[in-house]
Amino acid sequence: MQKVNRGKLRAVASRETILYTLPALVLVALTIYVPFVLSGYYSLTEWNGIAKEPVFIGFENFKNIFAGNPAFLSALWFTTKYAFFFIILSNIGALTLAVALTRKYRLANTLRGMFFVPYIMSMTIVGFIWKFIFTQGFAKLAEFTGWGIWNLSWLGDANIAFWSVVIVGVWQSLGFYIVLYIAGLQAVPPDVLEAAQIDGANGRQRFFKVILPLLGPSITTCIFMSLTNSLKVFDIILALTKGGPGGATYSATLEIYREAFQNNNYGLGSAKAIIFFVIVLVITQLVLRFFERREVDL
Amino acid sequence: MKKLVSLALAIAMLLSLVTIASAADQVTINMFISQPEYADAVRALIDAYKEIAPDVTINYETTQNDYPTLLKTKINAGECPDIFSTTSGKEIGVYLEYSYNFADEPAAAAMQDSVRAVMMSGDEVHGFALKSNYFGIVYNKAIFDEVGITEFPTTTDAMIAACEKIAAAGYQPFSTGFAEWWVYKHVFQHFLNAASDNPAELVSKFIAGEAKIKDYPILYDNFFNFLDLAVQYGDAKPLETDLASEESAIGIGKAAMILGQGAWVEADIMNIDPEFQLGFNGYPVSDDPADCKVVSGSDQALRIYKDSKVLSSVLDFVNWWYTSDYGKNWFCDVAGVIPPLKDVKAPDMEVIKQGDALSATVGAGPVSVSYSTDSFHQAFGEILQAYVGGTLTKDEACAQIEQKWVELEGGN
Lengths: 298, 412
Prior knowledge:
The complex is a heterodimer of chains A (about 300) and B (about 400).
Chain A: H1 2-42, E1 45-46, E2 55-56, H2 60-66, H3 70-102, H4 108-120, H5 123-145, H6 158-186, H7 190-198, H8 203-214, H9 216-231, H10 235-240, H11 252-262, H12 266-293
Antiparallel strand pairs in A: 1-2
Helix pairs in contact in A: 3-6, 3-9, 3-11, 4-6, 6-9, 7-8, 9-12, 11-12
Chain B: H1 2-23, E1 27-33, H2 39-52, E2 56-62, H3 67-76, E3 83-87, H4 90-94, H5 106-110, H6 113-117, E4 120-121, E5 124-125, E6 133-140, H7 141-146, H8 156-168, E7 172-175, H9 181-195, H10 199-208, H11 217-232, H12 243-251, E8 255-262, H13 266-272, E9 278-281, E10 294-297, E11 300-304, H14 311-323, H15 325-335, H16 350-361, E12 364-365, H17 374-388, H18 394-409
Parallel strand pairs in B: 1-2, 1-3, 7-8, 10-12
Antiparallel strand pairs in B: 3-11, 4-5, 6-8, 6-9, 6-10
C-alpha cells in the first residue's frame, strides 16, 4: 500500500517538475534554440534578408569563408587581441582593487559602490559617455595641461582606437569582477591565514602562497566570465567607434552583424555566426577544463 | 467569484464584438519610415488628413537608428508596413517585389523630374519622396569676404589658392566630418558626375567589374587630391569629426567650409549664429569651372507595399499629400524642406535660393549616390577612412573600392 502511494507521489512530483519548467523551456526554445536552428539553415542559403525565398546553396558560404575572408579574419584577430587584454587587465585590476577594498577603512563600502556603478549602466550609454570624454573631455584636458597624451586622436587613429575600446570595456565591467573577487576573499578562512602568519609568512607570501591558491574557484569564474564577455563584445564598440576608423575595430560579432544587415548577406552572416559559435564553444571548454584542474581544495 | 469571472468574460466578448464592428468601416494604414527629423511635420500631415478622411487611421512609426534592420525584421515577420522607406536609385530594385508601381497615379505626375528619375524601375514608378535635396559645399561668406576671396573657387587650383589664403588669415579652411561614412559618398558623387556624362552607366560598369578608377583622372587624381587637401587644411583629428562638430566649427566661425553636407545643415547653423552669412556651391572637381555643380534630387524613397490590404486608401493618402493644397504647401510651410513637386513654393532658405540660381546657370548634377546601395557606401566610407588615416595607400584603396562594388552590388 505504502509502496503504491510513494510511486504515485513520485509521479506527481515529476509531473509537477515538468509542468513548472515548461513555460521557461518554451520561452528559451523560442528565443534561443529555434533561432539557432534557423540560422543553421540560413547559413546554407544565399539570402539578402529581404527576398521572399532564400536560395539553398549548400556549403558555399562556408567554402567562401574558409577560402579566406579577410574581413572575418581581421575581426577574429581583433576579438582575440581584445579578449587577451580584456581578461588580463580586468582580472588583475579587479583582484588588486578587491584586495584593497577588503581592508577595513571608512570609505571601503562607498568605494565598492562607486566601482560597481559603471556595471549597472547600459553599455551603449557607457559608450556614448566615453565618446564624449575621448573627444571633448580630452581636448579640454590637453588645453589645461598641455600634455601630448590628451591630444592623441583616441578614436580616430586605428591603433589607439583599439586601446580606447579595451580601456572602456575594462572600466565598465571592473565592478562586476571586483564583487566576485571580494566574495572569494571573504571566504578565505582566517585560521589558515593566522596559521601562515604564525609560521612566519610575510604579507607577500601570504597572498601568493595562501590566498591566491584558495581563490581558485573565483579566478575560474572570473576568467570564464571575462572570456565569454570579451568574445561577445558588441555594444561598446557600436557606440564608441561603429567599427571605425576605417574598419579597424570590428569585433567578430559586429562583423557578423555588418555582413548580415549592412551588406545584405544574411546567409553568409549566419555562416560566420555558426563558425564563431564553434570557436567560442571550443575555447571556453578548453579554458574551463584548464582552470578547474588547477583549483586547490582545502 | 464565479459570477464575477463570467461577467468579466461576457464584457470581454462584448468589447471584442464592438471592435470588430467598428473595424469594418475603419481603415488603418501602417506607415513605418525613416527620416525621424520630420516626425512632428509628418504627424501634422496625418492630423490634417484625419479631417479629410475620418475613417482612415494612419499608424505612424519612425526610428532614430538602424531603420533598415528593423524594416527587414518586419518584412520577414510578414508585417510589411503599407508605407516604408528605402534609399532611392539602386535600392528601388532591391525591394521591388514588395513595392507598388503607381506610375498611373496623379502623385507620380506631380513629382519633379529629378526626383522621379531615381524612383524608376524601367517605366515603373516605385517611390516618392518626403523632400528633395541639395548637396554641395556650405561655406561662410563673411570669412571669404574678410580674406578677399570674391568668387567661390570653382576649380582645383583656385581652391588650393583659397585654402592658403584662408589658412594664412588664421581660419581653418575645412571641417571635414570624415568620421561619418556618408560624408564620403556625398563628396564623391560630385566627382562621379564630372567623370562621366552618364554617371549611372559608369557606376553600373564599376559594379560589373568592367571599369577601373585609374582610367578616370577626375576620380583617381582629382578626388583623392581633394581628400588630401581637405585633410591638410582640415580638422586636427579628421576621423573624430562628425556632423555635429562640422556644424559647430562653421557655425562659430572657426571653419570656412564644410564637406559632405547640404540643405539639411542650414537650420542648425542658423541656430548657432542667426547672423551667419551662408554660401552654397558645388565642388571644384576639375580645371573647368563648368564642372563645379551642386547636386539636386532625393536620396531617400518612400514606398507603397504592393500587397497592402488597404492599398486604395494608401494611394488616396499619397495622392492627397502630393496634389491637395494643404499637402503641396506642407513641404514649405510645415516641414520646411525642398518640395519634391513641380511648381510648388519652396521655403526661404539660402541653400535653396543659391542652389536654384546655380541650377539655372551652370546646371545641377543627379544624385549619383543613389546608383549604389548603402551597403556599398558604408564599405566605401570605411576604405576612405583608412586612406585618410594613412593605413591604406591610394592604389590599395582604389583596388578595395572596385572589389566592394563587385562584391556587394553585383548580386543585387
